[in-house]
Design a protein that fits this description.
The structure is a homodimer. By secondary structure, chain A is an alpha/beta fold. Chain A contains nine helices and 14 strands. The two termini of chain A are 27 Å apart.
Chain lengths: 339, 339
Amino acid sequence: MAEKHIGKQTVFLKNPPSIKATASIVGPREGKGNLKKCFDYIIPDELWGEDSWEKAESKLVRETFAKVLQNAGLSNDKIDYVLAGDLLNQCIAANYGLRDTNVPFLGLYGACSTMAESMSIGSMLVEGGFADNVVCLTSSHYCSAEKQFRYPLELGSQRAPTSQWTVTGSGAVVISAQGSGPYITHVTTGKIIDLGISDVNNMGAAMAPAAADTILTHFADTGLDPQYYDLIVTGDLGKVGKEICADILKMNGLNIEDRYNDCGVMIFNLNEQDVHSGGSGCGCSATVFAGHIYKEIMKGNLKRVLFVATGALMSPISSQQKETIPGIAHAVSIHRSLD
Amino acid sequence: MAEKHIGKQTVFLKNPPSIKATASIVGPREGKGNLKKCFDYIIPDELWGEDSWEKAESKLVRETFAKVLQNAGLSNDKIDYVLAGDLLNQCIAANYGLRDTNVPFLGLYGACSTMAESMSIGSMLVEGGFADNVVCLTSSHYCSAEKQFRYPLELGSQRAPTSQWTVTGSGAVVISAQGSGPYITHVTTGKIIDLGISDVNNMGAAMAPAAADTILTHFADTGLDPQYYDLIVTGDLGKVGKEICADILKMNGLNIEDRYNDCGVMIFNLNEQDVHSGGSGCGCSATVFAGHIYKEIMKGNLKRVLFVATGALMSPISSQQKETIPGIAHAVSIHRSLD
């Protein structure tokens, strides 16, 4: 087993890097949701002055990158790597949004798990002595995602009750070798899990087994008890997937319900906003973490958080070819202090 | 500057990991090219028994993963991470091809730079003590790429003289903490560079400035002289892009022409095979490295190699929206021995 591994899938960061700052920019609908007071900026409309949704998403990335550097008090030349990705084909939101940063770039694709993937790799690069500061960033955009993955918005398609609403937003964190926390102490990297769900309107169900697998593995690897965390939060399973994940965990002897939430459930007001099962997209867990969870940690309201972003690794083509939907989930363990 | 950084973009791996094994599987056309004797297997036709090109590409990934483990004498449970990506929307070749491996998965998107990106991150994870063994893998497929990025094959579109032929193939390496080389000693991570090329039939020209930037940075950061390497090899600039890259380097005072080659030029017989400017795709640099360069290093014919995979970070949508083509290139320095 590798030096820093504890259990097969988890590494322990002995010199844990700090999350120095976060930033989040969201769309108008997210700006009317439960967490509306948490974000750095709410854009006035889905185009934000651009002439396409894809360019608007790139602008979200560009401005969120600028904002997180401002919040960290760092200039571009202090950043060793930016690790980023999004849902658009060939990840053009990140590629074009970060084109002018002049920072070494590592592109990632983990579908909606990308925020935790970027924080996982980013914190290992920092702890390993390869970087002083990294930026981890993801985005999604409701209109560019619907256009690419589903139907033209103009069609006004009816949505299934299990469907989720892709978050328009971008979230970023700066992870640094120096700092006074919050600290990233453990990284549990997920495996691809496919239990045979093929309903593209029920991504939560497709991703839930992967989330449960990573959570179970995290506790098995670390020997920790769920009560160790104040909050265990999945990426974007939504209402339906969250219940499935909790059920799978219970069947495996792990009851986390008193401290479990999901970013897709948290970001919108599910009773009042017409988003069916909740939020989704790379931008969902990114903005909920950067906008809300991080600030709760900084305020002392949360001392230890397990952040588990989840992704569905399919494409429209794979669905048309009757493939099922593989899921993945990566977890990072975040501590306010090292007491 | 971070502990292991030498210069802004390069890390020095003091305890350099070894490339324990490689594997490569290619398509029929690649199997008739200059390097036909180097590959582990040449598939009989582009479908390889599957009912779609995408599924054939997933099979390339699946079988190359199995082959590289066999060549390394390792079982799945000895692999800490697999780092992989491809060109298909949402990276479905890697996602489906590696679905059943039961190995923690980190998905990457660096377009055709992905092989060097995966080896960069993989070797840092190993050197940092986070992994004993990682598999780095990429793929591409001529038919799935043409269908997705250009025109239906059935249309029989005429190709521009500057266009390149996407390689059908998958290449993989196992990078290990223990081993007797070849060693990965330096990693130079590229920035996104966009000099305004918008011709999607001239990817070589779009990527050449990024390749040149990373090569210049590598030598500036390390203080090495180009003569230090027996071979400096770019990923898939093709004939046109290779000349542009060499010219940019010369304009910047670096003449590497006596030891410079390009995987896109090497893989096909450009005089006899109808591939215009040469090979491209993630699978190009992956199979040329895994099939040919690695074996030349093992034979002692090459002692030190700078492997610089190059990617064009655009999509059909970004081109339709009149965006130019950003490029990126990542470099890894490989030594037969540590003398």
